[in-house]
Design a protein that fits this description.
CATH superfamily of the largest domain: Metal-dependent hydrolases
Structural class: alpha/beta
Number of helices: 6
Number of domains: 2
CATH topology of the largest domain: TIM Barrel
Strand order of the largest sheet: 5-8-9-12-13-14-15-16
Oligomer: single chain
Distance between the termini: 34 Å
Bound molecules: zinc ion
Order of helices and strands: EEEEEEEHEHHEHEEEHEEEHEEEE
Length: 315
């Protein structure tokens, strides 16, 4: 496969460079590093492995830091490695070359994912880690997370999560916590000591309950959090106010999770510097209108977004 070849040339590519799309471009890569991007193929290049892009756009791979599954693949107990490899392959075909697998807190599931990663070099070159949503979040803003996957802060349980490792590091690389959870500052400190991104989300806090940290990040801004009420601004106001102007934030830009007007308002205000576009996709993503199950519950997709079948709640 192309990305496993360290040295090669791509010809007839359309490349976004110097502010415009440039057709008929040749890209040469040596030992995994892009060495030239230009119009002409030079003589030494001809000796290298060669790919014709047929005029297609060639660009860097996309990173989806928050994705639960897609293409009929997800974190399925008992068939983890096949599923996650299938997911990584499906995403590759869509241009997503690396991702964090989002998950609600389940120790057995985490252990299985850790094993799958240890056993599959292919998987470990695409799956960056697990994005754990919870369990230390606010029940009032659980969104699609079942109550059984929510807990008050519990250091022992946290230790259990941290001991599940892959490649000598905790398998979890990002964790959503609600800042109003009792003990959240200690929790955030421990996570950062383990190089885990602390993401605020699934929270009903007010802006007054927040304290800036050196790094702040928000899980799917606007979804499953206290909104920007003018008398009681909630977590959604955080990236807009000065002490938190360094906050990075995720946005689901499908026009369903967040109204397009709010996407416009947000991105025009912040630019793209702090923006992480995420899909928050589910197992049914990319399959058109269909039905399936998630965490034991029936779900359906209308081809645009995925919902729980029993209450039509957006998943
Ligand atoms: Zn969520």
């Amino acid at each position: 496969m192309l990305h496993h070849e360290p040295t090669y040339v791509i010809t007839n590519a359309t490349v976004y460079t110097q502010g415009t799309l440039q057709p008929h471009t040749t890209i040469s890569v040596e030992q995994g590093i892009i060495t030239t991007v230009g119009k002409h193929e030079t003589a030494p290049m001809k000796k290298l492995k060669h790919f014709d892009a047929n005029g297609g756009i060639v660009g860097p791979g996309l990173v989806d830091m928050h994705l639960h599954g897609a293409g009929g693949f997800g974190a399925i107990k008992g068939a983890m490695q096949e599923n996650l490899e299938g997911l990584a392959m499906f995403l590759l075909k869509k241009g997503i070359t690396s991702f964090q697998l989002a998950l609600v807190s389940d120790l057995d599931l985490l252990a299985e994912i850790g094993k799958a990663l240890e056993n599959s070099p292919f998987l470990s070159s695409h799956l960056l880690g697990v994005y754990l949503e919870g369990p230390f979040i606010a029940a009032e803003k659980r969104g699609g997370i079942l109550s059984s996957n929510i807990k008050s802060y519990d250091k022992e349980y946290l230790q259990k999560i941290l001991t599940i490792q892959a490649g000598g590091k905790p398998l979890v690389t990002t964790m959503t916590i609600a800042p109003e959870v009792h003990g959240s500052e200690e929790l955030a400190d421990i996570l950062e000591e383990h190089h885990i991104v602390v993401a605020y989300g699934h929270s009903n806090c007010t802006i007054d309950e927040l304290r800036p940290r050196a790094r702040n990040h928000i899980t799917h801004l606007y979804n499953a959090m206290s909104p920007i009420d003018h008398k009681r601004p909630g977590l959604a106001a955080m990236p807009f106010v000065r002490p938190f102007s360094h906050t990075t934030y995720e946005l689901v830009c499908d026009g369903v999770h967040v109204h397009p007007a709010l996407l416009d308002l947000t991105i025009r205000n912040f630019g793209t510097e702090r923006l992480c576009i995420i899909s928050d996709a589910m197992i049914l993503a990319g399959l058109g209108a269909c039905e399936g199950t998630y965490v034991g519950k029936k779900i359906y997709s209308n081809g645009k977004a995925c919902y729980y079948s029993d209450n039509d709640m957006l998943r």
